[in-house]
């Protein structure tokens, strides 16, 4: 009896501890899982290809930028897209916990999974399997033989890894599919300027709409989903210029996302991680943050690729800014041979932004070798000056991008990038330091010293590389392999390779 008197209180205390412990575990485990509508892994490879970093993004955390375990990696490694591995964060089976919601939900989910896997794989699983094969192919290409290509085989120091880029491009041609949402009325949607400094918006939208190779009409077969709105057209038709109110543009973007997310399951499935927008207007980044997931999780193809304004080179794409004055590049491509280029450096442009006044202050009418003008003398051709110059100065304006970069490439002139926080176009593939000169704003007074320190032999090498990479910036109608249209698609393809999306968790959150 004495023993029983001692044991009963001990048993009761132990019971209370177990019950409350399980209840606490159930609450935290279920709450942790229920908050995540999908699996999202940002895996970004290192230069040695010895594994991939992965991280799970939860719905609770989705209003913040997706974290990266190893921090920021330079754009060159983005082309070395790696297989991602399932994280160990949610290995615990929900059925091991108790509670009125968790156990039944998990049993139903397990049954659905088993039934589904016995019969067929979902379309998303098939897409992910294809992407996984592409990741393996890129890893093998790093140390393997370059694939045969009768049209063009990338080679040379202009590429971070020509073999990997080539294999990636071929994989893109073989399987990449884009779904273009059909909702929205022109001119704001499915339309854009094609003869202006924002021409890449209209050109890409038009080409994507009529494309017969990469575009799919079946959204279940798409790797990415294109949001076909033009920020430039919003500024023209939605924004009230005198009001200085950005609200109408924000509401237009927000209403569109609400429309397609309510009509289709794809946005909610990935929180927009496999969706992309494209904008060359300066306000493109601002428009993207009308919807937090669009700005911080989706792929943004932007001319204004400014890292100080939340441009993320790992998930975002830097577009070349191309001013198609006539809608075509005919007559703008070509220039003199290096030996006939008598001008060391050239720039002509208005006082636009904080950098150009510094260039003009130090070099306008100060040196015969460096031709810097706010306005060209009458009868002097801007393009002829570029064609006869060794180096073309490309200072940023109010925003980091400048159409002079592509104009210089067209003219066979080595571009001199003068900017801060700018990510040059396609720098995940292209090694810009091999065919351009990057000058910090603080070194503008030393421009001539920097340029004359480049030996004639090195300059000739750089100029030849300019001619080789020029094909990647040419606008063709219809598009040609490896041209700017395909390079934009390839950059989006790379970002999609860095993301794994799985729909199993949707059953839990429904």
Automatic annotation (TrEMBL):
Q: A single GO CC term, please?
A: Golgi membrane
Subcellular location(s): the record lists: Golgi apparatus membrane
Q: Which residues form the Exostosin GT47 domain?
A: 173-454
| Major place of residence | Golgi
The record's listing under Pfam families reads: Exostosin_GT47 (PF03016)
Q: Which domain of life is it from?
A: Eukaryota
Per the record, membrane topology reads: Single-pass type II membrane protein
- Keyword annotations from UniProtKB, A to Z: Glycosyltransferase, Golgi apparatus, Signal-anchor, Transferase, Transmembrane
Return one GO MF term: glycosyltransferase activity
Per the UniProt entry, the signal peptide is none
Membrane-spanning segments: none
InterPro entries on file: Exostosin, Exostosin_GT47
Q: Which family does it belong to?
A: Belongs to the glycosyltransferase 47 family.
User: What's the name of the protein?
Assistant: Exostosin GT47 domain-containing protein
- The species this protein was found in: Populus trichocarpa (Western balsam poplar)
